[in-house]
Each structure stands twice: as structure tokens, then as C-alpha cells.
UniProtKB/TrEMBL annotation:
The keyword Hydrolase applies. SUPFAM superfamilies: alpha/beta-Hydrolases (SSF53474). This is Alpha/beta fold hydrolase. One of its GO terms (molecular function) is hydrolase activity. Keywords: Hydrolase. Residues 29-269 form the AB hydrolase-1 domain. The lineage of its organism: Bacteria, Bacillati, Actinomycetota, Actinomycetes, Kitasatosporales. It comes from the Bacteria. It holds the Pfam family Abhydrolase_1.
Amino acid sequence: MTELSHDSTRRELATGQGVLRYHEAGEGPPLLMLHGSGPGVTGWRNYRDNLAAFAPHFRCLVLEFPGFGVSDPADGHPLATAGDAVVRFLDGLGLQRVDVIGNSMGGIVGTRFALDHPDRVRRLVTIGGIGRNLYSPGPGEGIRLLTEFTDNPTRDGLVRWLRSMVYDQNLVTDELVEERWAQATDPDTLASARLMYGSKAFAARAAAAAASGEPPYWALLHRLRPKTLLTWGRDDRVSPVDMSILPMRTIPDGELHVFPDCGHWVMIEQKAAWESAVLAFLTREDATKDAA
């Protein structure tokens, strides 16, 4: 297999609303990989170490959402522009049906896409993030630290947020901090983050949602059609594991796998176990339901 480096996998797709950048590796059925949010995040940083496991089986497509400093920016709230980017991306590549892996925010985007386009997702994998807090305070500790950093971006604030993401604190290295800091403090990326996690925007969005009368996505999970695997870190401080109860119970064909000694970044912190579970799920034979 060709070396799966940043440059060897990097691609661009021109669309009517700007250039979408992505990473591509492997051949086979298309697997769309959607990243999470937070300071300095990219799709490449979320999934770079997982590509070697999935590329022998799938055409892996790691999409970079607008507003995070890699793809061209788009006007609007990052969650809304991410959903639009998925449609533009798949249409631009001529892909009608895909498997989807979504980390945190990417899991919400993938779930919403599957709800809106039920015939376009064969199987869905989420990594934390979806559902709602049932026993734990909401928003979780990691989200509160993210808001603090977004309002007042300091290096110490970034470190506190990064430490909330993982169970193994040794993963928060100086290299990781520097990598994240450089992109998180880019003016355009920071402005986009404030649309999502700034305290004023956070409060305004909650008020608007309450006033709209529209049901939140998690209240519609009983309509989700694809087979779904929920993966979660038992020690997640961003989206605590009790959030998994509602989607686990209401998604018609949903499964839940909880990983011990693991925080929010399951695909990084429990890499081998997570890859094994996800590959087994995605490659499992179930011709009758998958063909329906």
C-alpha cells in the first residue's frame, strides 16, 4: 500500500460554494469519515492513524468541514454548513450511498444526514457525541471548557480542554498542544468556533431552538434507518456515557460498544479495539437488510 501521508492522501473538490478539501485512501465501498469540533481539529488529525486499518477494505474519504481552517469557509453556523458540505461532497464525487463514521459533532452531522437522506447511508458509526445527558449535567465538562477557551483563547485553556478529552493524560503532549494551538487561534477558524461554542452564541442558539418548536435531532432517532453502531469511551467527560442510553434504546437497529479507560477520542485512545469493533460491524454480512 502507498504510504498514507498527509500529502499523498490530500485531495480537493471544487463546488459551487467553494473548495472542499479531503483525504482519500484505499479502494472498495465508500466510507465517509466526519471529524468532530474543537480547537485545532481537522479530519486528518482525527483519523490519520486509523486509515491503515480501513483502507484495505474501503475507499476512505475524510472530509474537512468548512469553518475549521482547511476547506473554504462557508457562511452560517458550522453545524448547518457541515451538513450542506456532506451533500455537496457526495454529489460532487457522484456517490449515492456510503457508510459513515462520525466523531462527536461529525456523528451528529452523519446522523442528521441519515435522517434526511435515509437511502444514502448504508451503515452509521458514531463516536460519542449524539443523544442527550440523562443523569450527568449538561453540557458536559469538556463542552464548558471548550466555551471558556473560545471566549478567551489561552494556551492554558487549550491544555485544560485537551486534558478533558482523554483518559490517559500522557496523550496531551507538547507537540499536540502546539499543533492544535496554531490552527485554533487562526482568526477565521476562531470566528467560526465562536458561532458554535462562544457563550453568547451558545445561549442564543438554545433560546432559538426552544422558541422554534421544532424537535431536536435526538427526538427523531426512532426514524433512523441504517444499522448503527454507537461507540463510546466509558470515561468521556465531553459527552458522558449516559448520553448513549437514549440513542441505544430508540435507534431501531442500533448497537452500543463502550470502551474502558477511554475518554472522548475513542478512535485514538482505544485505537486497536475500536478499529476491530468498527470493521466487524461494517463488514458483517446482512444482505437482506442492507439491500433493502
